[in-house]
Amino acid sequence: MDSIDYYNKNASIYFENTVDLNIEDILEKFISYLPEAGNILDLGCGSGRDSLYFINKGFDVTAMDGSEELCQLASIHIGQDVLHMQFSELDFQEVFDGIWACASLLHTTPEQLHQILGKISDSLNPGGVLYMSFKYGDFQGYRNGRYFADYKFHDIEEILEEHRDLTIMEIWKTSDIRTERDESWLNIIVRKAEKEVL
Fold this sequence. Notes:
Elements: H1 3-9, H2 11-18, H3 24-31, E1 39-43, H4 49-56, E2 60-65, H5 68-78, E3 83-84, E4 96-101, H6 110-123, E5 124-135, E6 140-143, E7 146-149, H7 153-161, E8 166-175, E9 184-192
Parallel strand pairs: 1-2, 1-4, 2-3, 4-5
Antiparallel strand pairs: 5-9, 6-7, 8-9
């Protein structure tokens, strides 16, 4: 069973467990980098929790997820269609001011992550911002029915060295807000380079 199968089979439980989690501090940090009423892609939107937050703040939100079941639940939650797409199908060209990838890219291998970061960069407007988060650690493999790649600070810095158009603005570690979980998260905000003026 791959990670998408897991989310399709467990969509309702996952929705209930995550839709009310409060990560407002991180959402607001991301928003602080964006133009007012800008375009946001919620990449792997899950329950739609964060998409709804952005919509309520006046942003133009495109939500997408690889799980068809979660797309249906999230669409009801946010009151608009959710794109059913895999990360590998991203094919936007300079559309978004911000891309929000909260606990979603952690299901990709490091090799896949490199490819997706290229697609993310293509999707961002010049000067656009990406937020992504991963479990903190050095594990790679299957855990509870899903593939995970965990990272530490230097791992992410090394990966982003190969993406010269993306610059780390902030990178920080947080504890899981679910008190029953003894886990930490690595949070990263990167900005795409502005176009050079000739």
